[in-house]
Amino acid sequence: MIPEDLERQINLAEAEGAVPFLVSATSGTTVLGAFDPLNAIAAVCQRRGLWLHVDAAWGGSVLLSQKHRHLLDGIQRADSVAWNPHKLLGAGLQCSVLLLQDTSNLLKRCHGSQASYLFQQDKFYDVALDVGDKVVQCGRHVDCLKLWLLWKAQGGQGLEQRIDRAFALAQYLVEEIKKREGFELVMEPEFVNVCFWFVPPSLRGKQESPDYSQRLSQVAPVLKERMMKEGSMMIGYQPHGIWGNFFRMIVANPMQTRADIDFLLNELERLGQDL
Predict the structure, then answer these.
(1) Rounded to two decimals, what is the model's pTM?
(2) What are the beta bridge partners of residue 30?
(3) pLDDT tens digit at each of 275 positions of the chain
């Protein structure tokens, strides 16, 4: 998100008679792993009286790393934050967190049915403990237990090391891609999403050909089919904006090693040598 454009879009919406009330920023986009400039966005929201929500489902765990948490500078200014520990941290599915600045029991005011057959208000204990009346589905799994157990087992330092190691291994992949013929980065990553093309021998040096982009976009689906039928690995691919299909390697598994990264690149070369 571009903060200057955000201001322009707010003005445009108001000029059309709409009433903007919420801005949703992202910390760790699904494909490129991009982080919005939260401080600048928060300044716009504060000035215009808008609720700022941050979708940190993917990138929120970076806050546990002293080295990389700067990517989320300004998140403390958000009104609400969504975070999925089951993603980068590897907590058991499903483990989702919604954090709010609001202290007025907002979730219960929004979702509470106060059904007398479920949530009696004259109990001897604090009825605020009846969290079922705060969510749409009423009954649900105890997601927080999964996060508590993971944190208890790994500790804050252990989780920080897990995140730092993922960043380091992603950077190793980037460096190896730059060394090898036939591999091209989509862009320099700022997270653990490493996006790249494998350019097969028949397309190398053909960047000026009018059908180059179209032919390159066909490579990833073919290689995905081959790797799955071989049973050797599985990597996602997708187009994005003006770019044709490219691979998106997410370096997040705490068991991954440099040897796995080397195998990934070697296997792509082997599978695509005849293309």
Answers:
(1) 0.91
(2) none
(3) 999 999 999 999 999 999 999 999 999 999 999 999 999 999 999 999 999 999 999 999 999 999 999 999 999 999 999 999 999 999 998 999 999 999 888 888 888 887 888 888 888 998 877 888 888 787 777 888 999 999 999 999 999 999 999 999 999 999 999 999 999 999 999 999 999 999 999 999 999 999 999 999 999 999 999 999 999 999 999 999 999 999 999 999 999 999 999 999 999 999 999 99
